[in-house]
Amino acid sequence: MAKQNPEKAGLYLDDFQVGQHFRSGSHSVDEEQIRTFAKQFDPQPFHLEAAAGKASFFGGLVAIGWHTAAITMRLLVESGLPIAGGLVGAGGEITWPSPVRPGAVLQVESEILEVRPSRSRPDRGIVTVRSETRDGAGEVVQVLVAKLVVSRRAHPDSLAEKAIKQTNAALKDGAKESYIQPN
Predict the structure, then answer these.
(1) Residue 143 and residue 81: Cα distance in Å, rounded?
(2) Cα(177)–Cα(111) distance, rounded to whole angstroms?
(3) Alpha helices in the chain (DSSP H)
(4) What's the whole-model pTM score?
(5) What structural domains does the chain harbor?
(6) Digit-coded pLDDT (tens) for 13-57
């Protein structure tokens, strides 16, 4: 699995535009991964045994939807969405239109749907992203539409104003020296 490219890391709210696309690295899924995840989180027979999977409406062993979601998250974090401060969810919707089968090679393609600065918190905003996880044949196995909290780049003037306020507060609390005045 690919590690996040440091040159791509660190996009802020103002760096995103509606229609931007991102593509992750890939992840190969095998029977052992499917069974291991199923044993721990969803021990249903069609996730654990090939014969039970074949007898089910899936027609074979398949990964749990949440396993697909976990792989998707890892792909997004490591190489898919280079958001400064990480991927912080504020809600979303997820569907699994097709199952993931052993041998699948998953990759995530994401598109920015909306970029909205916060009215109450000027240091951040919400980016709505549609991420499609596809297998090696190009079939969509998961669709995630997520609202992500994304930081805004600190404006140099706001940093200076903050430093002045902190200095003035410290001086007010005990120092007899004059206050610093902003330009």
Answers:
(1) 15
(2) 54
(3) 31-41, 45-48, 50-55, 65-75, 156-172
(4) 0.79
(5) 13-152 (3.10.129.10), 154-183 (no CATH)
(6) 999 999 999 999 999 999 999 999 999 999 999 999 999 999 999
